[in-house]
Amino acid sequence: MVRRKLVLSFPENIVTSPITYKLVKEFNLEFNILRAEITPDMEGKMLIELRGDKALIDDAIKYLTDTGVSVQEAAKDIIISKNKCIDCGICTSICITQALTLDSSSFKLKFNKDKCILCELCLDCCPVSAIKVHI
Amino acid sequence: MTRTIEEINEKIKNGKVVVLNAEEIIDYAEKKGIKRTAKEVDVVTTATFSPMCSSGAFLNFGHSDPPIKMTRVLLNDVPAYAGIAAVDAYIGATELSETEGLNYGGAHVIEDLISGKPIKLRATSAGTDCYPRREIETYITKDTINQAYLFNPRNAYQNYTAATNSSNRTIHTYMGKLLPNFGNVTYCSAGQLSPLLNDPYYRTIGIGTRIFLAGSQGYVSWHGTQHNPGKERLPNGTPAGLAGTLAVIGNLKEMSPEYLRACTFRGYGVTIFIGIGVPIPVIDEEMVEFLKIRDEDIYTEIFDYSVQRRNRPSYGKVNYRELRSGKIKIKGKSIQTGSISSYFKALEISNVLKQEIKKGKFYLTNYVAPLPAEEKYNTLDILSREEL
């Protein structure tokens, strides 16, 4: 049993396909949709956490890719520039899941990517533009 | 027990000075008691690293040939004030670029200058007999120009308010992004490390005090704008809100971008993080009483920034230990908190200053004149000439 957090990008032509349904039905995966955005005439994006057998997750990713869904590892998508970050901590006040916290002894910013749901609230709150997210 | 600055400087010279930072003094005084601490510790270093809008730099560009009396000056497209002598200008931190808006401003010009980057200078003039040139476009760095010094009218606020938002929409303020329905609280003080909170009645910090200013050795030049020493005090001397401020000055050419950083608060504007360190001499036992102040002894008040008035509703007082824990309660609701002032950087500066003093690179000063202990805090009212 493993967990993987993925960002799925759906091109316009398959936005209406029941893709997550197939993940359950054919690959026996548990999933948790952390975030989803589907706008008319644009591609859809979904942040999803998959839980299940490692081989089946790999098969599911292959299925998704074959269908035309682009798949990225979510955790890789948040980048905090260590050169730019000044460890002020303003971002910790708006991080709903507490993925961003200040270490209680060193007062340095800590990022726990497992907790991040890519809500992007932190992006424009950083005064030195140290946080970037690429979906 | 009393100790003079001269005695401390003698110890610095002999390499025998005992220096602690404002965090270390807390446990030290707790363990050893006030008397022994006063006897054993000579200096306590305090610091802060926060956005301080009221900052800027005076620059002298040198004269071109033929010369120009600059009346409109742009530095990387950011206007600088040139209503002084021919090639003097003041670049304010919050001034915005005419081409890049909120992405670049005076603060960025200052940071780029300090970093040694080339800056495009454009200036125009009506032209005079003695200054015939009417326009100039060239590049400068901190090494090609004459004097360049930061002269910040208001820095190192003694304490600052905390901010929240009761409305149903996200607001963008100088206290950062405030989420709707009390979604978060932001605050901005180094608390127990902060210079003026460790010398609340300005017994040692005054005009002429040598300080660490963004990596250079600068000075307190005056009391800062909006200096409000009369703010109500707790029994430990600290004000639970806006009180004293400092105007500071220092050589930009000796500063480091490590301790000065341009920044943008989205929807608000450009401002600048300034690192300031102030050494506080342990002149007597009373000074230890002030210096041993802890975050839990220092309070601030939470204001509702969604109310667009000078006097905003208050949601009560809270101490810095609670704020720094990451969560506080307002009306029974648990709310996440975040600091705008970097405690990590403040701690770093307090340690850098400590090392400089220990190594004999930084000597303490007696102030030349004290900061005002009384000062009226005026508001701006809309009046006719007759009503004045």
Fold blueprint:
The complex is a heterodimer of chains A (135) and B (388).
Chain A (H helix, E strand, L loop, with lengths): L1 E9 L8 H9 L2 E8 L6 E9 L1 H14 L2 E4 L4 E3 L19 E3 L6 E3 L19 E3 L2
Helix pairs in contact in A: 1-2
Chain B lengths: L4 H9 L5 E3 L2 H17 L2 E9 L4 E5 L11 E4 L2 E3 L7 E5 L3 E2 L3 E5 H9 L4 E6 L10 E6 L7 E8 L6 E3 L6 E3 L2 E3 L5 E4 L7 H4 L7 E2 L2 E4 L2 E8 L22 E6 L8 E6 L3 E13 L3 H7 L7 E6 L9 E6 H5 L2 E4 L2 E7 L3 H16 L10 E2 L18
Parallel strand pairs in B: 1-2, 12-22, 15-25
Antiparallel strand pairs in B: 2-21, 3-6, 3-11, 4-5, 4-9, 7-8, 9-10, 11-19, 13-14, 16-26, 17-18, 17-21, 18-19, 20-21, 22-23, 24-25
Helix pairs in contact in B: 2-5
Known CATH architecture of the largest domain in chain A: 2-Layer Sandwich
Count the domains of chain A. 2
SSE string of chain A, helices as H and strands as E:
EHEEHEEEEE
Q: List low-pLDDT spans of chain B.
A: none
Oligomer: heterodimer
- Output the CATH class name of the largest domain in chain A: Alpha Beta
Number of strands of chain A: 8
CATH topology of the largest domain in chain A: Alpha-Beta Plaits
Question: For the report, how would you describe the main beta sheet of chain A?
Answer: 4 strands, antiparallel
* Rg estimate of chain B, integer Å: 22 Å
Strand content of chain B: 25-35%
What is the tally of helical segments of chain B? Answer: 7
Number of helices of chain A: 2
Mean pLDDT of chain B: 97
- Count the E strands of chain B: 26
What separation lies between the terminal Cα atoms of chain A? Answer: 26 Å
Corresponding CATH superfamily of the largest domain in chain A: ACT domain
Ends apart, CA distance between termini of chain B:
51 Å
